[in-house]
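Sample A.
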Amino acid sequence: MLAQPRIWLLGAGSWLWHWLRRPWLAIIAGLIAVALTLAVWQLPQLPGQLVNEQAAATTWLLNTSSAYGFWGNLYLTLGFFDVLHSPSLYLLLALLLPTLAAQLADQLGALRQMRAVQSASLTTTAQTSGEAIPISSERPLFRWRGLVPALPDDVVAVLENKVNTLATVTTKTEVDVLLPPQLPLQIDPAEAASAKEVRLVGTSYPRLHYLRPLLMVGLILSVAGAWIAVAFGWQLAPPPLAPGETFRSASRDLVLHYMVDLTNTASSVLEVTLQGESVELPTDETIRKNVGPATIQVRSAYPAVWIATSDGSDRLALPDQSKLHSHIGLVFATPGSEESVLMPEQGVGMRIVQRSGSDNFVLEVYRSDAIQPIYRAELTTGGQLSVPFAPGEIGFTVSTLPGLQVDVRHLPGLWLVPVGILLALIGVVAFLRPSTFVTIQVAPWTLDQTVVILQSDHPDIISSLRAGLDTFPSLSLTEASDRAVDDPLPPPLSQSSP
């Protein structure tokens, strides 16, 4: 009753093993995983605070993809802007690891097979003519055995010349055959007792077998690094920071403060405090820096305006707000947008409009009792204007500064990805040249016949050597197998069937 389920399980396991060992499946899956990892690394990702807000998330994705033109639509379709929250990524990684592990086991089996051929004792006495050298068949092993109507020396000469063109290293030895088969009486018993078997072992670039497993090792490292980053990492993408603005995340113990020097606005910096560690970053360039366990990326993404009173007094307010400030920062994330700032005590309001297709601004100052602006000027990038409350009086200054897009990511294990890619590239180079082996055994069989055994890890080598034997008339084929049987020691051959 138990035999049938066991047979079914063995069959299912064998099918799964062969399916996982298909190299194209592992390579394609590995490339997809690397592409997704690079997307996480290089492309903006959906902010964590928008994951549970469907409408806001959709708007963010559409706005972000539009900045990349044609490629943005492709990235959006492939999910490259929200990789960390994609269930398909987890599924892909779950499928990749066993697939790559099976491929690695296959390459290690090839290395073990090559090492077994190189370390095989070629001087061990053969028990009988036609007995194959034991070679592990855990990987495909191709074997051919047959009779050639020629003397052993003539056969060896042909095969030796042929194998020298196929292999970079060739070893030749002769061993005694202690128990020759039951031969016809044409051979003297004394001559039969001293029969010799010639063994040739050829290898082609055997050291490449040591490098080939690096391809799968590298892909496994890359996938493992991506899985660790996805499973244990996090990301924050705060809204664009205006000058003087502060962003706080209690869950990540993160504080971002855009500090502006009141006397020199050009020396503004971004102060980042993460889990007790603080650092100041410049705002006039794109910079990436490790702070604590996370990586901070700061870039000037939008134009912004900094407005401050000349004497530091609290006179400025935003519409619908009663609290007064000494300075206010405004960021213009949409081209052509406008903002307003009020000075309630003076009964003055200022309208700031960004010019379409430009980072310049138009400033207009209005009194509460006037229809036309009392002051109008254009503020250029990097410029500064002094705006009076009354004629001859300097009331406040307006300066342009960059609006900052800050991306905070904690992706542990991501460093494994470049290491894995480097190892994989080394492993790929090892596949540019063929690395194979072949063993040849030539021994007397009858007075005018020679038994030949060919074993190799590549069927084309067997075919090439057999083509060399076609120079002898009427080749007698007694065994031709595309793959060697599991038993590395075939049974002794009879007189009519070597």
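Sample B.
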Amino acid sequence: MSVKTQTIINQIEKELLKFIEQNFEVKLEKINWETPPELEMGDLAFSCFELARELKQNPVEIATRIATNFKVENLVSKIKNIGPYVNLFFKKDIFCRDLISDVLDEKDNYGRGEKKIEKVMLEGFGQPNTHKAFHIGHLRNIFLSESMSNLLEFSGYQIIRANYYGDVGTHIATWLWYFINYVEDKELILKASKKNIDPELSRKLAEIYTLAKNKVEEVETAQAEISQILQRLESGDKEINKLWKLTAELSLADFRRIFKLLKVSFDKEFFESEVEKPGKKIVQELVDKKIAVESDGAMIVDLADYKLGVLLILKSDGTSLYATKDLALAVLKFNKYKIDRSLYVIDSRQDLYFKQIFKTLELMGFSQAKKCRQLSYGVVALQGGAMASRKGNIILAQDLYDKILDKVQTEISKRENVDFKDVNDVANKITLGALKFGMLKYTPESNITFDWESALKFEGDTGPYLQYTYARIGSIKNKNFKNQKIKASQIDFSLLSTIEEWEVIKAVSEFPQIISKATENYNPATLVNYLLSLSASFNKFYAKCPVAQAESDDLKLARLALIESVGVVLKNGLKILGVEVVGKM
């Protein structure tokens, strides 16, 4: 609710609690409000089951008694009971006036939560491994990270957005092994410019890794040779490290180009290479504190007492693992950045692993470990199964973006009075809208198959549909009310009396609660579904209730204020999801 409409509800609740105490001699702390399933059933409702248990009376009789005798002057127009529920109907003109004036006054801040002292670091944004492909699986991680960071920030939290690159490890050694021994034209990579990255670089790097994984299966001595390269890397061998740094920088430059293309940014970049040595020191500390023990030459943390199995933190040959580095990175976050909560956007296949990491951090004495949380999400599947770069059946993020962009540009170019500059600008916004919305509309935990053609439709549950709805609102205003200034105090909101108008008004009022719910549940899909429902309500309203051709100037102005408030909510909601609005489509 907006500030004023929430005040209305608070006042109703205060009066109702007083009424219950006086008439039933029961003191309740609060009313658990519910929203009736149909608009015709009221605006607020609460059940009398709790009271019935306290009083040992029939809940229907209690609801009837309250509905008959409870009154709230100037706030509620009607109260009735439906079975054991008491349903209240707002005085619509007061509710509309307070809501729309708040929305139009607050604009970009409508729905924003109060500032909180808690500092949160969210680690995600794809966390790509250098020397490997940047594919559509990374996109889901990136868009979930972006939208969750925005939700948390909009809700008032202090947010540090972080990316963590996998720039060391077995996959690097595997790539280098193949590059050194089997790539003939090395100059294509070695002479590439990191200042002017060729988009084809992603493909070249991915191809080398795929070929390397296949070659390993053919060469009997491959694993031993790769292990030797990994040890050379970790021991600081100058020659192999020079090649690693050069190729890693090219890979990182390409990743940053893609982030810019996606219009995604973050505050901090971490690298596995910077926490590798600190990680090994932490392993020794864990051994000294008897948190970790040796097992067949390797170092482990036995978490069987917590039903979490065994966490391997250092290999028997002394080389590091993901756990070696993840523990060091967590310690760095806690000590240097003084964060209160640490969130990890990681796919669901790592659920057990992160429970092990969090428990180990807790055993190390970090109180923040109890506020560590993995924001788990399902994999992005292709026709024929999940993506795996060793099989070479991945879809590059660049290829998917280009495919959608080409389709969008073609469609926009068919329209009249659109110059080339507009085509590029609008097409890029629609492309990103389709991509981001297409990934975010699903509950994070679900596995998805991304269908780019469906994601691009201008109707239905898509980003372009919402962008089109916003553009439609702008078009109505520009064509008919270009110089019209809206002042809520001068509008007769009692004229907004149809069920279609009230449905839109109620939807607009729910935006702050939706933000709160989506943030608490770490689920951007909650906001996605709300925006789709709001747009559907708006389009239903617009089909039944003309704005420019309204029966009177007063009604026209009231409806203009209503669609303006819808535009504010759509813009705010889409911005949180990382989707830019479009002025015209």
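B remarks: The mean pLDDT is 90. Residues 208 and 239 are 20 Å apart (CA to CA).
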